[in-house]
Amino acid sequence: MIKSTSDSPLHSHSVTQSLNHWAVISITAQEATDASRVGPKAANLAALGRAVLPVPDGYCVAADAYRLQLAALGLEQVARDVFSSDDGVARRSALQLRIRLMEQPVVLEVQEPLLAAWRSITRDGAVAGVVRSSALVEDRFGTSFAGQFESFIGIENEIDFLTAVRSCWAALWAPRALRYMATHDLDPADTAMALLLQPLVAARAAGGGLSQTAEGGMLINATPGLGSAIAQGEVAPDRYELGRDGGLRDSQAGMTYHQATCEHLSRPGRSRPKAKICLTPAQAEELGRYLIQAEAVMGRPVEIEWALDDAGIKLLQSRTLHLDDQPAQVPDQIWLRQPRLRG
Q1: Which of 80, 116, 288, 302 has a CA-to-CA distance to 110 between 20 and 30 Å?
Q2: Which portions of the chain are predicted below pLDDT 70?
Q3: What contacts 304, CB < 8 A, 6 or more positions away?
Q4: Distance CA 7, CA 9 (A)
């Protein structure tokens, strides 16, 4: 018997009837702030935008689009078998899900509104686009899933766009994501993958920020080009320390080994401190104000990702920041020689 709960991938009958009305949702709409439909990543960004913080335009693809694709491919029971007590059945089921979701075309009921949204954000191919995962289990307390799912940037045509959509859906069943879910007692058959579609921000600089540090201030980091270089450990980013009033207290240049760019190149950098930092004091303090505003929107300390293009700063992500009650203990002399690092 088909379940009708909103968290089940088997929920497809009502989805088919209403998909073209609301499964692809403008990020500016109130409905886009519903994390149960579009995932916390997209919902948090939509909430910032509605609070008049600078976020890129775009669309949220509700989780029901994924559920409908799963149902159309006859994969509901296969999904239930992924956490079977029989290891062989579990492995084969996970592999079948990934292969089928990657190889089979997106069903027309989903494909048509997806392509309409894509043409809108890319201005019919005039600019490149981005497809980002926004799983319903992502960015929640105790289960961040940081780096577990897929996002694709710089997509230039509709064939690659639909491939990226299928890849994000299939990533819910990747081995690393399944291991993470298993350790947190989560069954992937009880959740779903939503998506975020946006134009690419042609970043001159990018990075992250914390609205609260262990020392009681705020922290921003930055690197030239795309922020992925920080996440991948290719740079030691610039560092900006701010007070809780948003005022800049200190800034330090980082070291660049590679620069990720919008042209998909990784440019060699210098392994010594840069002569010029990425942000002016005014830009760092502007980010500080955004951190304070984002914290007010989300009701607790936050971690953000941001990018700076020719038009100014844009916020790309915001998640709640869960701080330890006590500062981390420094374990040995190596850490003592690196006082700014916390493991």
Answers
A1: 80
A2: 1-22, 139-148, 227-235, 256-275, 323-343
A3: 208, 209, 211, 290, 291, 294, 315, 316, 317, 318
A4: 7
Give the separation between CA 110 and CA 326, rounded to whole angstroms: 48
DSSP assignment letter at 276: S
User: For residue 11, what pLDDT is reported?
Assistant: 43
Q: Kindly give, in sequence order, each residue whose CB lies less than 8 Å from that of residue 205, ignoring residues fewer than 6 positions away.
A: 222, 223, 224, 225, 278, 279, 307, 308
Environment class of 120 (CB within 10 Å of its CB; exposed 0-12, middle 13-18, buried 19+): middle
- Strand intervals (E) in the chain: 24-26, 59-61, 129-135, 151-155, 193-199, 205-210, 218-224, 235-236, 238-242, 248-252, 255-256, 258-260, 266-268, 302-309, 312-320
Res 195: pLDDT: 97
Check: pTM over 0.85? Answer yes or no: no
Rounded to an integer, what distance in angstroms lies between the CA atom of residue 24 and that of residue 38?
Answer: 9
